[in-house]
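It is worth pausing here to work through a concrete case rather than discussing structure prediction in the abstract. The textbook approach is simple: state the sequence, then state the predicted structure, then interpret. We follow exactly that order.
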Amino acid sequence: MLLVHGSGGHAHWWDVLVPFFVPGYRLLAPDLRGHGESAWPAEAAYGIADLGNDLLAAVDALGHGSVAVVAHSMGARAAAWLTATYPDRVRALALLDTSIAGVDAETARRWRGRVAGQRVGRVYPSYADAIAAFRLVPPEADVPAAIAASLAHHAVVERRPGEWTFRFDRAVLSLDGDGAGDMTGLVAAIRCPLWIGRGLRSGVSPPRELEVIRAAHPRLEVHEFAGGHHFFLADPVAAGTALREFLDRNAADVR
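Step two, the predicted structure:
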């Protein structure tokens, strides 16, 4: 199973769901390019094909012909591209609270305008100061403090003595996003089993996108959860249980 985190995240975003997938699945949770412990490209390159082909390379490195994919937010868009472009490599796809239609220009300016063109974020004088500055975006009050603290720990790095900052490359927050625009038609055309989860308080995954896909996709399951964009962190039991049931029905390795 390939686990794909979202923008600004890292592989440890999946730690809370690992107990629901193991035993039973071999897990690969990469840090996307420019995130976590992965390198930054010399020139910012965070288009949908850049991210999607990195995922394909990860699947190839796993040495497995096809995998199940569980992905969140920006990572879910890259996973959808991977599935549509290389349909023989994905046996089941789960998308967690992503904007399939993409972010409109005004929303992008509101969320990202002040950091557009930057790569390195704010610098803090200590680990404690950097950890204290960690925030989920958008906010999610129901995420337990211990989970947020773990996410923060893996998100920061001391690049030089006394200079702590967040690991991810701010260039991923370009106003153009991944450049793929509206992917509703692409997702609707995917024919492997498809699971879409959304937080009831999230504005990232509008119901209207799901209705278009539901009308075209014969094997779509839509699940709604209490919480917002990070619902699987706020209630990992509900999310993990629903995902495991879907995957066992549709993605078990029967070799």
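Step three, interpretation. Residues 121 and 165 are 6 Å apart (CA to CA). The mean pLDDT is 92.
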